[in-house]
Amino acid sequence: MSPVLEVHGLTRAFGRRVVLDRLELSIAPGEFVALLGRSGSGKSTLLRVLAGLDAVPAGVARLPQRRAVVFQEPRLMPWKTVAQNVALGLRRDDAEQAARAALAEVGLAARADAWPITLSGGEAQRAALARALVRQPELLLLDEPFAALDALTRIRMHALVGDLWRAHRPAILLVTHDVREAVLLADRVLILESGQITHQTAVSAAHPRRHGDLMLAALEAGLLARLGVEQALTH
Ligand SMILES: Nc1ncnc2c1ncn2[C@@H]1O[C@H](COP(=O)(O)OP(=O)(O)OP(=O)(O)O)[C@@H](O)[C@H]1O
Asked: So where does this one cross the membrane (predicted)?
């Protein structure tokens, strides 16, 4: 099956600072990939290029039209209701209905007519997920979507994203700092370093995965060591 996303020799520089350096990446349809890397390694830069928020430089060989992004902050328009936010820009006759259906899927049916300011952080992120899903993306780009949430909400969001992924099967590229989140959700975990993907770990455990699973803990420890966070392993 041909990949949904293919990148060969992708380079992105800001002035003299080369952030992505002849990067190679390929994602299969329906595959869930997590991208780790130290702060400043270029994860968000890569996501912005793939989202089309940045000039698309040479090297992006295949990029699906239907792609959607969820950022760390929900980016809802405060002057539109939650359902209007989800339906924003949708070019189909049943946009409002589709938005409500997507909101129901993320457990927000009852808040469809609410103003964004009345939502909790977790609810607002769910609305952002609904806004992405309603576009039926082939590729869903997630840029640290749970980083600003409290630990319990984050665990609930992991379960929700896992459920949505299994139900709709978009390919997902998740940028995260959270190694546990990466091994809980992804089929493949990549490390971005010096502008290139320098490491990948396949995670073959069946879904849905449990927090506290020993095999996942071992993978997490290995990835933390790769990232140079060895102390965290023994505590
Ligand atoms: N628009 C820009 N102009 C100049 N430099 C930029 C720009 N965007 C990013 N950079 C630089 O590119 C490098 C990578 O930034 P990026 O935000 O992609 O890293 P990151 O891995 O996502 O970091 P973090 O994990 O801290 O979010 C940084 O050195 C950053 O300062």
From this structure: none
Confidence of residue 231 (pLDDT cuts 50, 70, 90): very low
131 belongs to a structural domain: no
Is residue 37 within 6 Å of ligand 1 at its C-beta? yes
The reply to whether ligand 1 has any atom less than 6 angstroms from the CB of 45 is yes
Q: Which domain holds residue 208?
A: 5-66+137-234
CB of 224 closer than 8 Å to CB of 182: no
State how many domains the chain has: 1
Looking at per-residue pLDDT, the higher value among 231 and 213 belongs to 213
Nearest CA to ligand 1 atom 9: 45
Q: How many CB atoms lie within 10 A of CB 110?
A: 9
CATH of the domain at 61: 3.40.50.300
Helix (H, G, I), strand (E, B) or coil at 47: helix
